[in-house]
Amino acid sequence: MIWNLGSINADNFYDLPHLPGPGETLTATRFRQGLGGKGANMSVAAARAGARVMHIGATGADGRWAAQRLFEYGVDIPHVAEVDSATGHANIHIDPQGENSIVIFAGANADIDEQMIGAALSEARPGDTLLLQNETSGQVYAAKTAKALGLRLIYAAAPFSAAAVAAILEDIDILVLNAVEAGQLHAATGRELDALPVGDVIVTLGSDGCKWISNTARTTRLFPAFPVVPVDTTGAGDTFTGYLASALDRSLPMPQAITLASRAGALMVTRRGTADVIPDLREVQDHDFG
Fold first, then answer.
1. Rounded to the nearest 5°, which phi and psi values hold at 35?
2. Any bridge partners for residue 220, and if so which?
3. Can you tell me which residues bind K(+) (predicted)?
4. Does position 101 have pLDDT exceeding 90, yes or no?
5. Does the annotation place 268 within a ligand binding site?
6. How confident is the model at residue 102 (pLDDT cuts 50, 70, 90)?
7. Average pLDDT over residues 62-66
């Protein structure tokens, strides 16, 4: 089972002729709203990949629709609390090539406290997985609790914070980050990825595929990307991480888990949106990448 301490956002999408520069005002050609947040995206991806997922998070009263949509997508939500703050949201700018820039307001995601996390993880069992990222409060408490309970900890180091990584580095079993975040981590720590006290490090490389560094086996392996024409890269990394967590939770070997997650991430970039358009397992397995 996967326990995901993760953000829940309302995602506001603005299609633009190009990403804005400093001081520039642009008129959007299209607007739409959907369920998002790195945490919600990962929960939906893991559930659609076949895992049982328990989301630990929070919304405001204005976000009841978001919690309900998580449930509709197969995610368990008894540990999604309603707090006095506004629901988190993200304003996402997308250019015609599918590249994006994102501004996030944390809202209720910053109001998750240790009592909420402890109540949820008291139901976890050794061998379960805890999934973490950096859009909520409570990561340190959750990581220490997970370690004490014998859970596997998968940590997506995004949005990147050197202090957040350092605070739980010794507790991480699997670290997932993109190439930019990997560079930021090296700059902050002065340590190569194969020198980190983490069993497995996975670096997503966009159109160049991804790299798996097994510090347990002292091996590095590259995985090629699946050929696609991207229309929106938003949520692709979250989809990758959710599928990876689900595959490992179902006891797939790491190479198979990475391949499945890469297929899911590649298919995701051909769609516009976030949690609402994450592909299910059958779509990912059956898709012909040519």
1. -75, 135
2. 213
3. 232, 234, 268, 271, 273
4. no
5. yes
6. confident
7. 95
Single-letter residue type at 178: N
Mean pLDDT across the chain = 95
The residue-averaged pLDDT of 258-277 equals: 95
The Cα angle at residue 166 between residues 164 and 172, in degrees rounded to 5: 90
What is the C-alpha to C-alpha distance for residues 241 and 209, in angstroms, rounded to an integer? 14
Residue 104 has pLDDT above 90, yes or no: no
- Per-residue pLDDT of 135-186, as tens digits, reads 999 999 999 999 999 999 999 999 999 999 999 999 999 999 999 999 999 9
pLDDT value at residue 13: 87
User: In the annotation, is 173 catalytic?
Assistant: no
Domains in the chain (CATH in brackets) are 2-19+27-280 (3.40.1190.20)
100 known member of a binding site: no
User: Is residue 190 marked as binding?
Assistant: no
207 annotated among ligand-binding-site residues: yes
Displacement of CA 204 from its chain's centroid (Å) = 12
In angstroms, the CA 176 to CA 172 distance is 10
Given 171, 238, 249, 276, which residue is catalytic? 238
